[in-house]
Each structure stands twice: as structure tokens, then as C-alpha cells.
Amino acid sequence: MTEEQRPQTGLNIQKIPDMFGEDKSAKAKSNKKVYAAILLPALLIAVAGGAVIQSRKSNNNSDTFQASLQELEQELQAPDSAFTERNEERKSMLNTISETLEKYHEENGVYPATSNIEELFVEENFIGGIPMDPMHGESDGKDGLFGYTYAIYDTDNGRQTAYVLSALLEEQIGNYTWTISSDDDERENFRNYELSNVSLIEESKKTSPKRKSQ
Question: Quick check: 175 and 140 in contact, CB under 8 A?
Fold first, then answer.
């Protein structure tokens, strides 16, 4: 029997694949929706997880950097016992020198001239002799030297009626000036011992820098 002569079964054979095809397509679309519903949240979780991990790494790097900075800052701020002791000695010595100058002022009405400041310490039997900075004569790393300076000034009250004592104090980075003065007036060049009214206190004036008029 040829294909043309086959009896009709009431079922359109040609449409069966189409029917299955339609069913399969619908099922595939349904499956795609299911897969998408499952995979999309998983993908989002994976992306979020990666972001969290990256964030933690970034935070860890940031924390490590901050810790390094804090450690460096602590090292810089940590006092060195050697120069801390020298600084305390300098402060104490300036106070003692100031007391000697005030005593001289009470007795004479003026403060001593820079030319005889060292003689004053000898006459007063100053403890330890002429006061010297622990690092006297050493460079301060700029244009000056470590040492105690004495600057005398004229005021409305008369000649040689004000003074400024100074010393360089050490720090981890650089130095700074510590002063004691007879009044509250701000003055400049009190460490410029090339001026005639400023003296670098030392045992021998032979090693003092040449002076010029103020």
C-alpha cells in the first residue's frame, strides 16, 4: 500500500511533530524561566560575595596601611631618653641662670652687659662654673650652634633693663628654641650672637664669633 492509499486514522500525522514542537517550546520557555529564577539569585550572590571579598581585601590593605602609619608616628613621638635628659638639663640651667641675673638686677638696678656675663658666673661661684649646654658648640643642623645665649635690651626703664635667655631643645625631627625672659615683650634675634647685645655663653670668648653692631 502506498502512502497515498493509507487509511485515514483520524489523526493528522503531519501535525504531530508540530504539536510536540509546540509543547517542547513551551516547556523550554518554562524551564528557562525556572533556570533563570534559580541562576539569577545565585549569580547575584556570587557577585555580591566577590564584592565583599574585594572589600575585605581593600579594608585589610587599608587597615595594614593605617597600622603602619600609626607605628611610624609612635616611633617618631617616642621620647629618646638621651636628648630628653639633655633638654631637662637645659631648662633647669636656664632657670638657674635667670635667678642669678635677677639677683644681679636687685643689687645693681640693671642686668649685666654681654661682655661680662661669664665674669658674673665666676664672681657668684656659679655651681659647676660657667654654664655650658650639653652639646655646646655642636651644629644645630642649620646656621647656628647649640649653646646658651644671653641677650640684653634697653627699654623705657633704662639701659640693660630686659633680657632673653635661650637654649635649643632637641626633638626627633629638628630642634626648637626654649626661652626665659625678664618681661613679656616679644623680641627677635636673641640667638644671633653676632650682634653686640647677644652673647653665646662659653668659657672662652676667643672662640666666639665676631660681633657687629645691632
Answer: yes
Q: What is the pLDDT of residues 90-147, one digit of tens each?
A: 999 999 999 999 999 999 999 999 998 999 998 888 877 899 999 999 998 887 899 9
Asked whether the CA dihedral 75, 79, 81, 87 is positive or negative, the reply is positive
Distance separating alpha carbons of residues 25 and 11, to the nearest angstrom = 22
d(CA 179, CA 150): 10
Rounded to whole angstroms, the Cα distance separating 179 from 194 reads 18
Model pTM?
A: 0.60
Q: Are 109 and 159 in contact (CB under 8 A)?
A: no
Bridge partners (DSSP) of residue 181 are: 164
CA 94-99-105 angle, to 5 degrees, is 125
CA distance 65 to 68: 5
